[in-house]
User: Which sequence fits this backbone?
């Protein structure tokens, strides 16, 4: 009796059905229109415009590609190297000794120079036969190979407030603050961060 009751209960259960299991009934065709080629092109153009605007904003406010002209920053930067400079970083952080920066040439603001920051505002600096002394201490400069050093000397100065003393790494040929004096902060507009071409020189600028 319990077995019969069990069988009867199983037969009365509602089976799950789909239109395909019902004789004579076929699935309802999908009448929703597919994406048109015009819509796909519109999305592609939209994405392209967004990418272009983002690139312009990045170049305008953050990074800018520049080309090195000359050899005064050898051995790290060679003539015609292409690199990115960060134009925003000095709005949120201070310029530091050792930074490689791009600035308008004080004697002709139409030209741009790239040099290394050697001394900050208020620093005492002198040069004795090529050796830089900063605030009474001998400055160690691993970025200047012996073959690029020179024997020039300069009497001690105190870098004025709002100015920075710049020098090229290739000391024997560089035109820098030893000639045109410390550089006004307002002329500095970027920090060199990365060489991207040629690939043999690619890497972070230090």
Assistant:
């Amino acid at each position: 009796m319990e077995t019969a009751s069990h069988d009867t209960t199983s037969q009365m259960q509602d089976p799950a059905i789909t239109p395909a299991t019902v004789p004579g009934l076929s699935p309802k065709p999908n009448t929703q229109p597919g994406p048109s080629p015009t819509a796909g092109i519109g999305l592609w153009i939209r994405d392209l415009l967004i990418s272009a605007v983002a690139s312009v904003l990045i170049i305008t406010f953050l990074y800018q590609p520049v080309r090195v002209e000359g050899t005064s920053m050898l051995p790290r930067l060679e003539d015609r190297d292409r690199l990115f400079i960060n134009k925003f970083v000095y709005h949120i952080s201070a310029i530091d000794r050792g930074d490689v920066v791009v600035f308008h040439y004080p004697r002709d603001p139409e030209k741009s120079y790239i040099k290394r920051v050697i001394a900050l505002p208020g620093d005492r600096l002198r040069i004795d036969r090529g050796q830089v002394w900063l605030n009474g201490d001998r400055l160690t400069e691993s970025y200047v190979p012996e073959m690029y050093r020179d024997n020039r000397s300069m009497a001690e100065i105190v870098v004025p407030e709002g100015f920075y003393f710049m020098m090229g790494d290739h000391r024997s040929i560089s035109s820098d603050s030893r000639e045109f004096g410390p550089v006004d902060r307002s002329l500095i507009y970027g920090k060199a961060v990365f060489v991207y071409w040629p690939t043999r020189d690619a890497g972070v600028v230090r």
Remarks:
- Residues 1-26 have pLDDT under 50 and may be disordered.
- The CA atoms of residues 82 and 113 lie 14 Å apart.
